[in-house]
Amino acid sequence: MLSHVDSANRPTMVDVGDKTVTRRTARARAVVVFPDDVIEDEQIGETLRTKKGPVFDTAIVAGVMAVKRTHELIPFCHPIPLEDCNLSVEWGAKGEVVVECAVRATHKTGVEMEALTGAMTAALTVYDMCKALSHGIEIRDVKLLSKTGGKKDFEAGK
Length: 158
Description:
By secondary structure, this protein is of the alpha+beta class. It contains 4 helices and 7 strands; from the N terminus they run E-H-E-E-H-H-E-E-H-E-E. The protein has a single domain (22-148), classed as Molybdopterin cofactor biosynthesis C (MoaC) domain (Alpha-Beta Plaits).
């Protein structure tokens, strides 16, 4: 049974009142893929910068801001007192920017949605700041990499 549906099949927030407080962590990833013609452009460098400013740094700030506001964006997410949020935005394989978001809290509910929201928002910020170069930029492979705490841990691929 889905946790956000009550016995009358209506949407509801999960009651976490009786859950145990544990240390919760989550890591998520999103990959921004640039078309080949953009990558071959000489204005694309290690420290990607557009007229809007430093892309990677701005994406990190946007991602952290989104993590803090996840409960305002996703229905039924609980506000969580976050302890840590670490976002990285780096070049990966040719033409790919890899965004990873790690979140930690000691609370009664997990931080998976916060990590996913942070990674996705940072990726969207990269897209927004670079869309003048090409609208062929894609965001792919958005996924939860791992989570700890709560009923069971999770690691992608295991």
